[in-house]
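User: Hey, quick favor. My workstation is busy. Could you predict this chain's structure for me?
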Amino acid sequence: QVQLVESGGGLVQAGGSLTLSCAASSRSRFIINYVDWYRQTVGKPRETIARITSRGDTSVSDAVKGRFTISMNNAKDTVSIKMNNLQPDDTGLYSCNANVWTPADGSNDYWGQGTQVTVSS
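Assistant: No problem, here it is.
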């Protein structure tokens, strides 16, 4: 079993920045294959905003391109997303989903609990 914990959300003024983190942990050895960050905003379907693979390949959605950057730490157990020039439309619940391999269960998807980002105008 793998646990994901997101952190870093909060309230920020328009134009400000936040860094969200998604930390994976497990009692057993694990390997993150890839991590996706999603956001759920009011009145809109959940959208994928960024992905990073274990090789370090990254992609971000057009909605956040040029403002958000995704990265993984050297231990390859935490993925962060640096969000610059935040706007009120970025307000929402941000969640990470990780595809993780463990010796006992193979590769599975795991979700964090989400972290709220609120951008005031």
